[in-house]
Amino acid sequence: MDEMGRNLLEIKNVTKFYGKKKGINNLSLSIEGGEVICIVGPNGSGKSTSLKIISGIIEANTGECMINKMDARDIETKRYIGYLDENSFLYDHLTVYQFIDFVFSIKSKDQNNTETERLIKKFDLWEYRNTLIKQLSMGMRKRVSIIIAIMSYPPLIILDEPTNGLDTKSVIGLKEEILSAKDKNCIVVVSSHILDFLKQIGSTFVFLKHGEVIKKVSNNHYLDLDDIYKELYICNEAI
User: What residues form DSSP beta bridges with 29?
Assistant: First the structure.
């Protein structure tokens, strides 16, 4: 994979069943590098399922998800994906610095640890760098999870509810990192209930209902996500 070249995420006719119920139905998207795609919808609309399939964490029943023509499910592809789950796994018996530096050594060919230090400082974890992860608060653990998802700006960054548990300074830092990733030709896919946050970072907004895309709009100065959300999910009691 050419990490400096044109990044492309292709999602083709993806359907995922949970028993007889469809979690995702015939999802298709094509996303190029430099785009921040925001997945919007109420609980149960298929947001997290979509992100798990895009990341290769779970398999679809039909369809495919390719990042730069590599199957998202393949082990080799994982090093090109940064993924923040709502319940990301962390090694509790490593310190903050040890864990982040370990992940950095796997994801990057660069042996310089300045990126590790930069992100630890940016997300206010420097004084806790020698603290075991199991001793961190939930908010601090979330910051560690964000760091390992965005570090080294992989071609594809997937963030599921990234602002949950963050203080204001960390949210600002996260927005800055997402926009930096966009400038570096990364593809960023974000799911969040915080529409104001999405408006500030998003290029395109994809609205899901019952696992299907019901609206897709590009960002502009006049876009009102609250109005669109009300129209799609509240006014007609369509949740």
Answer: 11
- pLDDT at 50 > cutoff 90: yes
Task: Report the alpha-carbon distance of residue 9 to residue 80 in Å, rounded.
Answer: 12
Average pLDDT score over residue span 207-211:
94
Task: Please state, in angstroms and rounded to a whole number, the distance separating the CA atoms of residues 31 and 239.
Answer: 27
Residues 136 and 112: beta-carbon distance below 8 Å: no
Q: Distance between CA atoms of 177 and 39, rounded to whole angstroms? A: 18
Chain centroid to CA 125: how far? 21
pLDDT interval class at 20 (50, 70, 90): confident
Distances (CA, A) of 132 to 51, 64, 141: 29, 39, 11
Residue 55 neighbours by CB distance under 10 Å: 23
Residue 176: CB partners within 8 Å, gap ≥ 6? none
Amino acid found at 50 = S
pLDDT tops 80 at residue 211? yes
Mean pLDDT, residues 126-145 taken together: 96
The model's pTM is 0.93
Q: Quick: pLDDT tens for 178-192.
A: 999 999 999 999 999
- Are 46 and 211 contacting, i.e. CB atoms less than 8 angstroms apart? yes
Q: Are 39 and 213 in contact (CB under 8 A)?
A: no
What separation in angstroms does the CA of 197 have from each of 161, 175, 221? 11, 8, 14
CB 150 within 8 A of CB 157: yes
How does DSSP assign 135-182, residue by residue?
A: GS-HHHHHHHHHHHHHTT--SEEEEESTTTT--HHHHHHHHHHHHHHH
